[in-house]
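Q: Convert this sequence to C-alpha cells.
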Amino acid sequence: MRAITLNIKQLDRFCIITVLLISIACGYFTISHLNRKVKQFNIEKEILSKRMSEANLATANLKDLQAALSETQSELNALNEKIPPAGEIGVFLKQVNNLMRQRNVNMLSMKPQTAIFEKHYLKIPIQLVFTGSFENIYRLMDELERMNRIVIMDNMVISREEDRTECQADLMIHVFERAEME
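A:
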C-alpha cells in the first residue's frame, strides 16, 4: 500500500508540476502573442499617423492650390477685361462714344482699321476724329488711358482754327482682342 501511496503522491506531484508547466507555457505564449499584437498595433498606429500627416499635408497643399487657382482666375479675369475675346470691339466703341458724350466732345468719325495678328492677340487700329475744347479733349484722353481695356494712343494731331474756340483732334488708337486659337 505504501508503494501505491508513494506512487500516487509522486503522480500528484507530477500532475501538479505538469499543470504548472502547462500554465506557465500558456502564460508565456499568451504574453508573447500579446506582445506581438501590441508591436503590430504600434506599427499600424505609426503608419496611420504617417498617413494622417500626409493627408493633412495634402489638405494644406490643396488649400494652397485652391488659393493659387483663385488668384490665377482673378488675374485671368482682369486680363480678359484688358484683352477681351475677339468680336467685342463694338462694346469698346460704345464706351468711347459714351465717354465723348460725357466730356462734351463731338465725334466726327470713328474708323476701325484692319486688325493685325500678333502672336496670341489681334491689334486693332482705330482712327478717331473729334472736336471739343482742349480741356475736354485732355480729359477724354485721360479717361481713355484709365480704361480697363488696354488702349495705346498713337499719332495724335490737335489743331484749331484761329476764329474758333474748339479744337479738332485726329487720333490713332490701338486696342487688343484675343485671337481665336485653332
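The two ends are 114 Å apart (CA to CA).
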